[in-house]
């Protein structure tokens, strides 16, 4: 609850700072934002200074995260092995000047060395409802069904290994990136040619 209040206060303060021209109002909004940052620091693992650096100027919006869903000919799903020892779908934050489609393709190439096409949007989800994230900002996650067309994996700073897994033999997942329920959703989307994008 405090995390949600902190996010809301931060968003209200940031919006006020964007639109207000009155110096007294701006001073109040700055103070509200400082209180919100301290609240968020208490509820997350991030120090207040880092949170201040992550909060962008302008109107507050959530960060966007793309996850590529790639299956092999045997219907197994591709996961990347991270330095943390956990596994996840390839993906990451949407960079400036990237669309959801282009960012999905870019992240796959960077993390796996594979070339893919981004073909179909499986779901758009608010991570707060699915991934147990305690970030000081909102995160919207896009699951994109992709097709491998070329490429070869080489270990890199983000990924130590890639491997395909059956639905009933999943490894330990990085649940802030993808949960077993989200992986099951991806398998269901592959099986259903008439799948309708899920969004909330």
From TrEMBL:
<dbReference type="InterPro" id="IPR059176">
    <property type="entry name" value="UDP-X_N"/>
</dbReference>
<keyword id="KW-0378">Hydrolase</keyword>
<dbReference type="GO" id="GO:0016787">
    <property type="term" value="F:hydrolase activity"/>
</dbReference>
<dbReference type="Pfam" id="PF00293">
    <property type="entry name" value="NUDIX"/>
</dbReference>
<dbReference type="InterPro" id="IPR000086">
    <property type="entry name" value="NUDIX_hydrolase_dom"/>
</dbReference>
<protein>
    <submittedName>
        <fullName>ADP-ribose pyrophosphatase</fullName>
    </submittedName>
</protein>
<feature type="domain" description="Nudix hydrolase">
    <location>
        <begin position="61"/>
        <end position="189"/>
    </location>
</feature>
<dbReference type="InterPro" id="IPR015797">
    <property type="entry name" value="NUDIX_hydrolase-like_dom_sf"/>
</dbReference>
<dbReference type="Pfam" id="PF12535">
    <property type="entry name" value="Nudix_N"/>
</dbReference>
């Amino acid at each position: 609850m405090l995390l949600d209040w902190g996010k809301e206060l931060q968003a209200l303060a940031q919006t006020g700072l964007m639109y207000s021209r009155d110096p007294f109002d701006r001073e109040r909004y700055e103070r509200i934002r400082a209180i919100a940052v301290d609240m968020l620091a208490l509820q997350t693992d991030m120090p207040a200074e880092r949170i201040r650096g992550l909060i962008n100027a302008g109107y507050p919006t959530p960060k966007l995260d793309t996850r590529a869903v790639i299956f092999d000919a045997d219907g197994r799903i591709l996961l990347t092995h991270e330095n943390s020892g956990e596994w996840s779908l390839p993906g990451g934050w949407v960079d400036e000047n990237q669309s959801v489609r282009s960012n999905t393709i870019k992240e796959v190439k960077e993390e796996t060395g594979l070339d893919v096409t981004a073909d179909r949007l499986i779901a758009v989800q608010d991570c707060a409802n699915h991934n147990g994230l305690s970030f000081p900002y909102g995160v919207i996650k896009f699951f994109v069904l992709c097709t491998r067309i070329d490429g070869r994996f080489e270990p890199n700073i983000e990924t130590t290994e890639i491997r395909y897994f059956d639905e009933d033999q999943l490894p330990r997942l990085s649940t802030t990136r993808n949960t077993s329920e989200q992986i099951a959703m991806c398998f269901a989307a592959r099986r259903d040619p008439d799948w309708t994008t899920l969004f909330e």
